[in-house]
From TrEMBL:
<dbReference type="GO" id="GO:0042286">
    <property type="term" value="F:glutamate-1-semialdehyde 2,1-aminomutase activity"/>
</dbReference>
<keyword id="KW-0413">Isomerase</keyword>
<keyword id="KW-0663">Pyridoxal phosphate</keyword>
<dbReference type="InterPro" id="IPR005814">
    <property type="entry name" value="Aminotrans_3"/>
</dbReference>
<dbReference type="Pfam" id="PF00202">
    <property type="entry name" value="Aminotran_3"/>
</dbReference>
<dbReference type="InterPro" id="IPR015424">
    <property type="entry name" value="PyrdxlP-dep_Trfase"/>
</dbReference>
<dbReference type="InterPro" id="IPR015421">
    <property type="entry name" value="PyrdxlP-dep_Trfase_major"/>
</dbReference>
<comment type="similarity">
    <text>Belongs to the class-III pyridoxal-phosphate-dependent aminotransferase family.</text>
</comment>
<protein>
    <submittedName>
        <fullName>Glutamate-1-semialdehyde 2,1-aminomutase</fullName>
        <ecNumber>5.4.3.8</ecNumber>
    </submittedName>
</protein>
<dbReference type="InterPro" id="IPR015422">
    <property type="entry name" value="PyrdxlP-dep_Trfase_small"/>
</dbReference>
Length: 420
């Protein structure tokens, strides 16, 4: 598979070599690198991508969830063009910002007040800063396998360049262990930050009882519960929190909510967010030249109000659930020790069939399965993440998903013996 990949991608290889002359590793996002060299993507349209060698791919990664609307949604284009017509870099409060804020707050009722940023990473940094100030405490509880941005990462991977917060690292889906840890640090604990489903960690679903326990523990300890819904907010009209019926004190958002443009948002209880009100002496400063940029605001408004309506959100995630069940049924039928974990439109392949509750349940050896899967899928015209992550975007048709299932069947047929 690897030699076929090298042979069929000479232009991507050339692009990569050239790019390494000006950027370490040839790119500015570590997650996009893979051996022997990554594909150079030249353009996208709808649910399709093309690489430098002009191979066409069906995009089943969707910019790690930010690409929900596909590469050229007419409503998004219209919104961006309208913003361009009004001029960019307006350097002032603008008319679009409060409209998007209102849409987000209506969608996620726990977000009584919110502010925008440029990325999910920033959103989490700001939410943590708010929690520390609000509680006047210093410690931040996170979970092993969690990912809250490039400087807040607790998942396997390259050495993190983490911000120097005083982290307490718990074990995901472990109620007794987490209870003990919270009790040990209760007096100093400012926040518990958690993804309702660990996304980058491999789509590990947070058990409802665990997340409910976190709600109770945070309240008892006087710490704030922060749900990082940067990825999971797309799982239901009101995000994963609405499905669980759990109200966090703060929520962080990003990805598709900016219509596919650079975006982050954080918000929550009005009394906490009041810390950012510049009319109050001693308020927290929150700056960012592009926080309210009209392109993200306009695209975000179009996306939430006209495209990803509550009905569409329900439909897309039901299609994802059906796809995951179908893929898992294929794994069982072939007796393959594989599974897709996840919820709705987000799923991840793993090289074990036993239940995965936390990252320690994932064997390091599964890397080989994921490599085979990745190159097999590319060969069959499907663009997925090297780590086995699959994301449904709106322009994908049922026939695209059928073809994907067939290609996966083929994968199982070819490799079950080798994988056993
Ligand atoms: N939190 C979660 C749960 C994420 O999945 C991500 C991005 N993958 C982030 C935060 C960071 O968002 P961004 O890449 O926009 O900084």
């Amino acid at each position: 598979l690897r030699s076929a990949y090298v042979a069929s991608n000479p232009k991507s290889s050339e692009c990569y070599q050239a790019a390494t002359k000006v950027m370490p590793g040839g790119n500015t996002r570590s997650v996009l690198f893979y051996e022997p060299f990554p594909l150079a993507i030249s353009r996208g349209e709808g649910s399709r991508l093309w690489d430098a060698d002009n191979h066409e791919y069906t995009d089943l990664l969707g910019e790690f969830t930010a690409g929900l609307y596909g590469h050229s949604h007419p409503e998004i284009r219209k919104a961006i063009n309208a913003a361009l017509d009004g001029g960019i870099n307006l350097t002032g409060h603008n008319l679009l910002e409060p409209r998007l804020a209102e849409l987000v707050s209506k969608r996620f009722p726990s977000v009584e007040k919110l502010r925008f940023a440029n990325s999910g990473t920033e959103a989490n940094l700001l939410a943590i800063a708010a929690a520390k100030r609000f509680t006047n405490r210093s410690k931040v509880m996170v979970f092993k396998g969690g990912y809250h941005g490039g400087v807040l990462t607790f998942a396997a991977g390259p050495s993190p360049i983490n911000v120097p917060h005083d982290f307490v690292i718990g074990s995901y889906n472990d109620i007794p262990g987490t209870t003990a840890l919270v009790n040990e640090h209760a007096a100093d604990l400012a926040a518990i930050v958690v993804e309702p489903m660990q996304g980058a960690g491999g789509c590990i679903v947070g058990q409802p009882e665990f997340l409910e326990a976190l709600r109770k523990l945070a309240t008892e300890a006087g710490a704030l519960l922060i749900f990082d819904e940067v990825m999971t907010s797309r799982l239901a009209p009101g995000g994963r929190q609405s499905q669980l019926g759990i109200t966090p004190d703060m929520t962080t958002l990003g990805k598709y909510i900016g219509g596919g443009m650079s975006f982050g948002a954080f918000g929550g209880r009005e009394d906490i967010m009041a810390l950012f009100d510049p009319r109050t002496p001693g308020h927290l400063g929150h700056a960012g030249t592009f926080n309210n940029n009209v392109l993200s605001m306009s695209a975000g408004i179009a996306g939430l109000s006209r495209i990803y309506t509550p009905e569409v959100a329900v439909q897309l995630n039901a299609r994802g659930d059906a796809l995951r069940e179908r893929l898992n049924a294929s794994c069982s039928a072939h007796g393959a020790q594989l599974q897709f974990t996840g919820l709705g439109s987000l799923m991840n392949l793993h090289g074990v069939s036993s239940e995965i509750l936390r990252c320690d349940d994932i064997p390091a050896s599964e890397g080989i399965v994921k490599d085979l899967f990745f190159f097999h899928m590319l060969q069959h015209g499907f663009y997925v993440a090297r780590r086995g992550f699959i994301v449904l975007s709106l322009p994908l048709t049922d026939s695209d998903l059928d073809r994907f299932c067939n290609a996966f069947e083929e994968f199982l047929k070819r490799y079950t013996k080798a994988l056993a």
